[in-house]
Amino acid sequence: MSTGARIALSNILDVVRWKDAPSDTLEIAGGPHVLASPMPVADLASAAIGAVGLAVAELWRLRTGRQQTIGLDFTAAGLAMASGQYLLLDGRKARDWDPITGYYPTKDGRWLYLHANFPHLRDGLLEILGVPADPDTVETTLTKWTADDFEAAAVARGLCAVKMRSRQEWHREPHSAAIDSLPLIEITRIGDAPPQPFGEGARPLSGIRVLDLTRVIAGPMAGRTLAEHGATVMRIAGPHLPFIDALVMDTGFGKLSAHIDLRDKAGQAQLATLTRDADVFVNAYRPGSIAARGFGPEALARLRPGIVSASLSAFSRAGPWSMRRGYDSVVQAAVGLSPFDRSGKPCKPPFQALDYITGYLTAFGIMMALKRRAEVGGSWHVELSLARTAHWLQRMVDVLGLLPEAPEANPALDAIAPYVAETQSSFGLLRHLTPALILSETPGRFWRPPVPLGSDPAVWP
């Protein structure tokens, strides 16, 4: 295992107080850093995915009494941070960003980042500017605004625009201190319930039912990771909400997918029925939005004693930015992680490490909570945020240092053939990355390919 990955893994294990974790059973095969970044992203990715492997093996030990070894390919772990970018549908790239999404100069000499990858976010930004959906017109119009003024106008409407800050500027923001007051992974007991040991099962998470109320990448990746190791995961989507099909494909392996409309009492009753028979409830909507429908952590613990609820957000539950909408690239721009091209202009991130690392860490935190439920009982709440992961990444870079050399671009798909597989799905033929973890007794696998949202009835099989 690389020294950097071992240091980062040790930090993750310390956060959840897993002092006797058998980290010597994890072997990370050497490989090059392949992503276009001077940051040691593959080390941090290896640590997060390696933590998942240790947790999977621990649940298998609790279930069967048997140990297993865990292998992880360093290069594969790095590539996993750009999983969605390598997804092809019928030979074509499955996803691209909206043309309006990107960085724009403002009249005060700053850069502003607009996130417009959902139609309602794009249309709201264009409405503020009073212009059509043309990037050049948007750029011209934004030169009449200061970055702070447009950020404030967008946030007031629940939209995604952020002034690009340096790391030093970000840490002068009151919200930065609020994020630092939180651990990377919070695991809190929120109710009483008797221990629920793992019974017999063919896989580490056999019999574990997971409700996945998430969108985009981080939350769905947590559900996909649990499905990879045997959990029954049901993706719940509002039929009225916009989703990005390519991300549904990337994060949908191994999942059931049902529609429930939580805007009405019938939908809420339907979800409550599912929750009573669930073990895990994952929520990645803005803080308070799912709770307002009756499904906050404490309400879940009353409805289903012994449940593990998990909450993900962009900017955490604490501080003045807690209610802001945000995504990986928005957080990168806010905290001082945005990349620059050779001309010195900010550019599209070559990967989305905050999303993927947070997704893997969420799955790890959920499994640690399931371990505690099996050993001591209780209902548990797991909480993470993209911004807290960003702070962790920055601190780990301080410890590990930057790479002496970094590739100028991510590798082409043809150059990473050993890490790619093809799967036929109802969307079409998918070409995608394979899982990075290799477990000696219970190798990860998916029982079905991704399916369109709403493909299944909202009942447990």
Question: What features would you describe in this structure?
Answer:
This protein has helices at residues 3-15, 41-64, 74-79, 119-129, 135-142, 147-156, 167-171, 174-180, 218-228, 245-251, 265-276, 297-303, 328-335, 353-376, 386-400, and strands spanning 26-29, 70-73, 88-89, 92-93, 102-105, 111-114, 161-163, 186-191, 209-213, 232-237, 255-259, 280-283, 308-313, 379-385, 420-424, 429-433, 437-439. It is α/β, with parallel strands linked by helices. The chain has one domain: Crotonobetainyl-coa:carnitine coa-transferase, domain 1 (Rossmann fold). Strands 8-14-13-12-9-10-11 form a 7-stranded mixed beta sheet. A 4-stranded antiparallel beta sheet has the order 4-3-16-15, covered by helices on one side. Strands 1-2-17 form a 3-stranded mixed beta sheet. It is globular. 51% of the residues are buried.
Which regions contain 5 or more consecutive residues with pLDDT less than 50?
none
CATH top-level class: Alpha Beta
Q: What is the straight-line distance between the termini?
A: 40 Å
Q: Give the strand tally.
A: 17
Structural class: alpha/beta
Query: What is the CATH T-level topology?
Result: Rossmann fold
CATH superfamily: Crotonobetainyl-coa:carnitine coa-transferase, domain 1
Mean pLDDT: 96
Give the neighbour order of strands across the main sheet: 8-14-13-12-9-10-11
Helicity, as a percent range: 25-40%
Count of domain modules = 1
Overall form = globular
Q: Helical stretch count?
A: 15
The appropriate CATH architecture is 3-Layer(aba) Sandwich
Strand content: 15-25%
Q: What value does the Rg take, in angstroms?
A: 21 Å
Outline the biggest β-sheet. Answer: 7 strands, mixed
